[in-house]
Amino acid sequence: MAKKELQAPAGTQAIGRALAVLKLLANTSTELPGSEIAAQLGLSSGTAHRVVRALIAEGLVAHNPRTDSYYLGAGMILLGQAAQRGFGLDKALPVLEQLNAETEESVNLTVREGGESVVMLRVQSALPLRFEQHSGARFPLYTTASGKAILAHSPDAEAYVNALPATLSRLTERTLTSPAQLAAQLAEIRTRGYSIDEEENVAGVRCVGAPILDSDGHAQAALVIQVPTVRMPAKRMRELGARVVTAAKEVAQFVPVDRIMSR
């Protein structure tokens, strides 16, 4: 039986399909043939072909005739660069690069999207032992230093915690498992100024994070330093915690936090 095609309200279906194609290509590391795009999105081959051709005409998707496959086009680079300027990420990047140079560790700028923390900007450590990650990676708020830093300074923190299930899903053996544990950590973060991820999101990686606050003291974004556990004793964690707080305050001068909306 053929898969049922993606449905949307009248007048928005074509836009929804085009966005679905772009997101699919953005989340794959390889080119995709039209048949694979159609299969993954539940579209007929004819519909997928029409959507892809329209995106090619706008420069948002490109076609490799040798493999008869598709990938994101140069137009997406221009859109991405414009979005980065709009969010002030081009001005925030030197702060991340300086923090990376001082610590030799990976640094992320993340934003909140609903119940997830999403990496928007990353400066990778040059050291051979490091955690590989990419822009666009997303994780539950309660498992990450970035998510907890944001939550601790979010107006809906209490509502978020209350809506969680009684037992939280684990990503590692050290992931928080109860809303009560999370609530206690959020209170500590407000007092201490920075958040900690004790291998709760990725085994073998410790992180410290600080919120990027708006004028009301609320956060939808955070700055995080990621460090392999073997290079992160408690003393260094405190030192990096103080440093990431200072850097987050610098970034807050450039990033229009009011534009970063949690969905």
From TrEMBL:
<dbReference type="InterPro" id="IPR005471">
    <property type="entry name" value="Tscrpt_reg_IclR_N"/>
</dbReference>
<keyword id="KW-0804">Transcription</keyword>
<dbReference type="InterPro" id="IPR036388">
    <property type="entry name" value="WH-like_DNA-bd_sf"/>
</dbReference>
<keyword id="KW-0238">DNA-binding</keyword>
<keyword id="KW-0805">Transcription regulation</keyword>
<dbReference type="InterPro" id="IPR036390">
    <property type="entry name" value="WH_DNA-bd_sf"/>
</dbReference>
<dbReference type="GO" id="GO:0003700">
    <property type="term" value="F:DNA-binding transcription factor activity"/>
</dbReference>
<feature type="domain" description="HTH iclR-type">
    <location>
        <begin position="12"/>
        <end position="74"/>
    </location>
</feature>
<dbReference type="GO" id="GO:0003677">
    <property type="term" value="F:DNA binding"/>
</dbReference>
<dbReference type="InterPro" id="IPR050707">
    <property type="entry name" value="HTH_MetabolicPath_Reg"/>
</dbReference>
<dbReference type="GO" id="GO:0045892">
    <property type="term" value="P:negative regulation of DNA-templated transcription"/>
</dbReference>
<protein>
    <submittedName>
        <fullName>Transcriptional regulator, IclR family</fullName>
    </submittedName>
</protein>
<dbReference type="InterPro" id="IPR014757">
    <property type="entry name" value="Tscrpt_reg_IclR_C"/>
</dbReference>
<dbReference type="InterPro" id="IPR029016">
    <property type="entry name" value="GAF-like_dom_sf"/>
</dbReference>
<dbReference type="Pfam" id="PF01614">
    <property type="entry name" value="IclR_C"/>
</dbReference>
<feature type="domain" description="IclR-ED">
    <location>
        <begin position="75"/>
        <end position="257"/>
    </location>
</feature>
<dbReference type="Pfam" id="PF09339">
    <property type="entry name" value="HTH_IclR"/>
</dbReference>
